[in-house]
Amino acid sequence: MTKSIEQCTGPEEPRLNKTWFSTPTDWNCPVCKRHKTELIRPDNSGALFASLEDHHDHISNYIKDHSRQIIKDRRPDNNINGDEGHFLKRRITPFLERFKRTLICGDCNSADSAAKNILNDVCKYFSFSPKDIAKFIEVTPNCAHKIIQAKVTEVYINLEQMHAHIKVQADTSIENALLNNLIWAEPLSGPSASHYRTLSRAASSFEDNNPNDWNTIWKGPDKNLGPSSSDKKAAKERKRELRKKIRKEKTLKGTPKNTLANAGKPWSGEDHQRLLMAHEEKKKVYEIAVELQRSDIAISARLELYGRTPNYY
Length: 313
What we know:
three-stranded mixed sheet
């Protein structure tokens, strides 16, 4: 942990997005090579924050938008099937994108936008790849990246013509698909198969796997019958109820925050030492929370900050 983080006077726990908690503690950014402990930094107000973002090639957005525009121009009645643009996007993008979707840190993702702001008249569908971003950033642990403007221009000059060529290829692919009537996408009449597979996997997490749990997932009482409704709204509601049930059964609830003496207060060096010592002694998160008079979330976040795995049970 760097000194700047330890002395930060921000809120009790950092602001971390959902993707942060779905990645292992030893994850490191493929662009800047920083580990999680080096990603969390104070913002302008002194509050700690960090995020992991899904970086993708925006040529996919070009394919979707351009497809819809061409279809709209060819149909006087403006009767556009919303799935058609997405269909062409899914089919054409894998052949034209320069890089696959990549999970990177929030600072590297922001560097992509910052670099494009430096350039003049850059296409809004242009994206720097992870390897491109690594060439024009100056990396410092627990700090935002510094953009090297000369490198940005150098990298972009080598890619500008390629991007224009890819757009031409996208236009050709879209035209060929429309000319040969290769759009056969039909709108979904109900939730997709992947939706039910997700629910099925979630249902298997219940230890007792009793019929009452399945009632939360499937509309019918018999799990062997599978889903009995194709209504999207009802399916979303069942999925929402399932998530609530999983959180209730799997999440350890701690002491209310308003009863904790140190809730919301800055962490001192002594607090960090006590936290790490308690973790080394194999104490549970709720035990450390009571000892330090802080919330379970704060304890978990600080342990994540140090690259430690919290002990919940």
